[in-house]
User: Fold Receptor expression-enhancing protein from Buceros rhinoceros silvestris.
Amino acid sequence: RLLFGMLYPAYASYKAVKSKNIREYVRWMMYWIVFALFMATETFTDLLLPWFPFYYEMKMAFVLWLLSPYTRGASLLYRKFVHPTLSRKEKEIDTYIVQARERSYETMVHFGKRGLNLAATAAVRAATTSQGALAGRLRSFSMQDLRSI
Assistant:
């Protein structure tokens, strides 16, 4: 799956971008969109269906079907199912992404502040508890020892 599902398509995508062949570029973009959805679905099916006879072989055959220039499976799935579904849900998805970005920023700021507060508190505690030990240790040195340090 790594070779056929990712490495070969990545190289073919590189060649399409390099040659500036729009038709090939669009073909590989459709492939990557469908393959990403396949990978997301696979996360769940791998938990539920690995007991199914020839499960892994069917996954491999599906990837080859997506990839094949004869079947154009990725283009077929993209045009029949993915594009119409994404077109219908585009506004909802965009709203969700904006909300997720805002929440993630707020969460990062919250945890960042909390982490800095914890680090500052720990530094102050360490300094105050070790201050007595440090002063006692310094008193044990003679002035000559301190000068040499």
